[in-house]
Amino acid sequence: MTDKHCYLLGEHTIVFTLTTQNPARNAQRRLFALTAKLLQSDAFFEVVPAKASVTVYLKNPQDHPFWIAKINALWDECEVTSDTPTTHTLTVKYGRNFGPDLTALANTLQITEKQIVELHSSILYQVEFIGFLPGFAYLGTLPKALQLPRKETPRTHVPKGSVAIAQELTAVYPSASPGGWHLLGQCDTPLFDPLRAQPSVLMPGDQVKFMPSKEGLC
């Protein structure tokens, strides 16, 4: 059994959270299923999934007793299925002018730039949650050889499409932003469009495979 807690946070906000911040894969996939059900409702301004929780913002704050009970009931109904998740293949131009941190990372990690590219593109990543920027998908889990802290001094400007790593995660910046992750390359695939019915291309539970482009290092 997975321990959980559903509670009101302010007048409009309900949080459903698992008691562990590093849930087992089955519990996390069950949370993805719950999120999908909540996204189908028009009762919320926004549904915000995280690694071990999902937060909803009610249009009518008077509905919170109903929705606390309803979310708990939906959780009980959610089952981990064997459905194949959506897989996205993203082409990346690694190194050169596209990945300004690649050479420094190779020196820090004491491996070659080509090995970094091979390691980074060898994994089928899972979208664990969306946050920081609209459409910014946190992808796990990096090979241990590439796991390192964020940059000591963040950049004031990270270009749209930058492919980056930090700690045990990797991501693609869907828009230009300040940022403290290490930049490996550039992806030209648009990942966020506010005019689409589903603005974010990547959703929790999806999988991502990076493919090196001939335009980059390898």
Automatic annotation (TrEMBL):
Is the Hydrolase keyword given for this protein? yes
Which UniProt keywords are listed? Answer: ATP-binding, Hydrolase, Nucleotide-binding
Matching SUPFAM superfamilies: Cyclophilin-like
Taking every annotated instance into account, which residue ranges of this chain make up the domain Carboxyltransferase? 4-202
InterPro entries the UniProt entry points to: CT_C_D (IPR003833), Cyclophilin-like_dom_sf (IPR029000), PxpB (IPR010016)
Q: Any keyword Transit peptide? A: no
Q: Which residues form a coiled coil?
A: none
Q: Name one Pfam family in it.
A: CT_C_D
The family database entries (NCBIfam families) matched by this protein are listed as: 5-oxoprolinase subunit PxpB
Protein's recorded name: Carboxyltransferase domain-containing protein
Q: Which organism is it from?
A: Pseudoalteromonas aurantia 208
